[in-house]
Amino acid sequence: MHMPSEIEDDIKLHIDTVMQNAQRAFALYRQLPGRQRCAFLYRIAEELELQRDRLVEQAHRETFLSPTRLQSEIGRTTRQLKMFGDLIAEGSWVEAAIDTAENQAAPASVDIRKMQVPLGPVIVFGASNFPFAFSTAGGDTASALAAGATVVIKGHPAHPETSRLVFEAIKTALEATNMPAHTVQHVATGGNHGGKLLVVHPYTKAVAFTGSQQVGLTLLAYARERIDPIPIFAEMGSVNPVVFYPDALTRHARQLATQYAQSITMGVGQFCTNPGLLMGIQGQALQNFLLVLGMEMGRTAPQKMLHTGIAHHYATRVKEIVARPEITVLTPTPPLPAAEGEGVPVLASIEAADFLQHTLFTHEIFGPFSLVVICQSAAQLQQVLQHAGGQLTTTMVATDSDITFFAETIAFQQTVSGRVILNQAPTGVEVCASMVHGGPYPATTDARFTSVGTSAIKRWVRPVCYQNFKDSMLPDALKNSNPLGILRLVNNQYTREGGLPVQAVPPASLHTDAH
Predict the structure, then answer these.
(1) Which of 272, 296, 342, 375 is catalytic?
(2) Where does the Aldehyde dehydrogenase domain start and stop, copy by copy (predicted)?
(3) Helix 160-176 to helix 34-50 angle, to the nearest 10 degrees?
(4) How high is the pLDDT of residue 335?
């Protein structure tokens, strides 16, 4: 049903006011020293800890996620905030580079300095499956604020009150640390129309999204409609292929089946790193593994999913898949109707030749479902991996013998995802500097970046080069004395030392290569 024009006008006016506020705040916030922004991020973490029990109780009511899981997620959220705070307090993340003028050269060179600067206001769309770690005060918000960007949060409708309570904690931190008004704002109205207006607004400079491929591509299309296209950093799901190599299955079939039954059904399969695609080479070892895996998953009781809409979508997609003639269901009984809002664990299999005929089987089914692709050779394994497309993770379950014998396939596995795993289940994402939570399309819209770990800050910045500037005009990160004490690349040597000479080159003596 079309929205009445007067409501559309009200939403547009509201979004415009929000974005004007974000732009005004950005002019002030971007100039704050890293240590001040660090104090702000730490204070948000403190406020979340103070409200921990209330937040967990509310999120449990809205999402059916267990209190234990939610307690852990709040811990991850506060660690992320502090991690980015520490990063910007130290300061070397700006990648300062300095090439001083050499007036004795013929012709004389120029003084050139470079660093990363924030893009501008960032829109963060909250995720349904992580009400804390990937939503209002999650990694996208933390990394954008660390970069010096202002943030407008589009709260997820699956947990609106949780999002509001988290934003209240952020507001308290804003006031307590004297941050510019409207550094962070929260939009809970407007629905899909409001989301589009946020993306296309001229003051918006980047967008973060975690969710379905359909919505991610819609946001990408909105960005391309703009006069000035902006980056959309969308994580759009993944089937996270796991390749079980023959010797590993021969030696550890039962142990692996237990491990992967737990991984597939953990959190009712509502993780972006859920192993939704398993594959191996036809043989007795694979059959033994699948027999135990199907039984273990069949013993796992259905549980409540995030909300009834997700549960309904899961049930519909599973029914569509298992009705296909190419599919064999491996769980002991066919998927039965679950109680309202529950997800039934399902394991199914398909021959590789049939899998390669359609893209239908490559799509993520969000829930406790996994599809096993039975291959006839290592070459066919590689074909299946390529057909599955870009992923967040890919896992190899292999012994030393497998690693030697299947070296070519294992090498190919390392080209299809952002994170490659050996002999561990992919479920779960460690928050650390070396983590990559991203991957080639269609897992994300830009495989060069991660949404987890300190490198996530690079999504919200761009490099700026300062040529022939007076020292007093330069940002502190580029000044001769290095007042921040950060690590810088000076004349191709990394150093924390300051005291560089200032020798501005007159414009008449400039020499540049044509470009």
Answers:
(1) 272
(2) 14-428
(3) 130
(4) 58
Q: Do 210 and 350 share a domain, yes or no?
A: no
CA nearest to 345, candidates 355, 354, 336: 336
For the beta sheet containing 122-125, the strands, ordered from the edge strand earlier in sequence to the opposite edge, are 184-187, 151-154, 122-125, 206-210, 232-235
First to last CA, the chain: 53
pLDDT at 334: 57
Distance, in Å, from the CA atom of 431 to the CA atom of 174, rounded to the nearest integer, reads 25
Q: Domain range holding 299? A: 242-422
Q: Is residue 235 among the annotated active site residues?
A: yes
Q: At what angle do helices 34-50 and 139-147 cross, to 10 degrees?
A: 150
The pLDDT averaged over each successive group of 10 residues in the chain (515 residues) is 74 95 98 97 98 97 94 97 98 97 68 97 96 96 98 95 98 98 94 94 97 94 94 95 98 96 95 96 97 95 92 94 96 72 95 96 95 97 96 98 96 96 94 95 95 97 97 96 96 90 45 43
Q: Residue 302 — φ and ψ, nearest 5°? A: -60, 145
By the 8 A CB rule, do 294 and 333 touch?
no
- What are the CA-CA distances from residue 338 to residues 169, 262, 281 (Å)? 38, 19, 33
Of residues 306, 365, 340, 343, the one with CA closest to residue 135: 306
Bridge-partner residues for 346, per DSSP?
369
Catalytic residue status for 272: yes
Domain identity same for 78 and 132 = yes
The CATH number covering residue 343 comes to 3.40.309.10
* Alpha carbon distance 170, 381 (integer Å): 48
Long-range contacts of 196-202, Cβ-Cβ distance < 8 Å, separation of 24 or more: 196/222, 197/11, 197/12, 197/15, 198/15, 198/18, 198/19, 198/123, 198/152, 198/154, 199/123, 199/223, 199/230, 199/232, 200/225, 200/226, 201/15, 201/16, 201/19, 202/19, 202/226, 202/227, 202/228
Check: pTM over 0.90? Answer yes or no: yes
Q: Which amino acid is at 482?
A: N
Q: Across-strand partners of 165?
A: none
**Taken in order 197, 200, 206, 212, is the CA torsion positive or negative?**
positive
Q: Counting every residue, how long is the chain? A: 515
Residue with token string 């934003």: 167
Assess whether 82 and 223 both reside in one domain.
yes
Domain count, the chain: 2
Residues 125 and 39 in one domain: yes
Query: Of 235, 296, 342, 364, which is the active-site residue?
Result: 235
Q: Based on the domain organization, do 226 and 268 belong to the same domain?
A: no
DSSP conformational letter for 461: E
